[in-house]
Amino acid sequence: MSSRKAIPTEGKLEAFTDAFETFGRTIDRLESSYEELESRFSNLNSQLEETNQRLRDALLENEKARSFLDNILSSVSSGILVYDCDGFVSHHNVAVEELLCLAADRIPGHEGHDLVAGDTKPEISAKCTLETGEEFRSEEKMLTLKSRSELPVAVSTSLMRDQNGDVIGVVEVLHDLTKIRLLEDEITRVKALAALGEIAATIAHEVRNPLGGIAGFASLLKRDLPQNHPGQRMVDKIIAGVDNLNRSVSSLLLYARDINLLPRTVELRNFLDEIVTYFSADINHDAGKYNIRTMLAPEDITWRLDPEQFRQAVVNLLYNAVQAMPDGGDIGLTARGGEELTVEVSDSGPGIDHELIERIFTPFFTTKEGGTGLGLATVKKIVDAHRGKIDVRSEPGGGTSFRLAFPK
To answer: What is the pTM of this model?
Structure first.
């Protein structure tokens, strides 16, 4: 039987007390460490929340900036292409899709020369700017699109750099010059026509001077000839030829002269009836071939305009209708008031080919034998002087309608 040394009761109690105190101190240290960890966690959590908030704010600002830049790019009428360092398109705006007639998915990832069918100056491009570092400013050239149509553009390029100054790409801006080219052509044409008009007016004055004498002597000759004399018919042809020539000269002088409007208030119903009456009398030898229908609004229409210029415009359109139907036909004249005065002259003639419609208001352009090509040009000039508009609707074989609109 083994013997164990007995521990006094007092010793057991003291050992237990020491152990308990040690345990208590350990608990205190653990609680302190926990509180410290909890505090540090709370601080870290607060810092993390602040960091997350700053990130959210930064993302929001970035999104606003991106949206702002996208709106700017979308509102720019010029085409914008952004190329990466390898020369491939990374971004573009909507305008370049419309400019190059390409779908949105046909542009990214392509090189510039892949977007068009031809380029008159390939050395002026984003690719050359990337290769040489030379930037271009509004350099003009002609592009041939995939649709085979030609597009005049002004090209500008600019290198993009990061904060360290390293090149990260290039921006290319394409500005459509089509309207500018049309305006330049129009200015050139107007100058040429103005010079031609001055020359023609001078010649017209020289031609008109002897016309009166020719007409007078022809009338005297007709009076002296017996009633059934064969020469009567020849004299009538002379007088008719003089009248036609005089009308052409008058048209030429009218077009060459600057229009100085003398507007006054006009009652349209009676005025248009008067115009039709005089016009019918002027074509009395052919009046029976034409059915002129006047259709006016039931209410009285009064408008402020230059009555003589307005009369000339309407008469020219009526003559144009007669010339379009040498064998006769229907002519309509309508007028309506409201926000604007609209006057429409229509005929039942053969109509106008679509490719000719854009040219019919060009001075001296005519498809009629013996025509001066100034009748419709004068109408447009008069309407423009009134700040109005003129539209034409025509179908081959379906007649033609000219609509004049005059603002208040």
So the answer is: 0.54
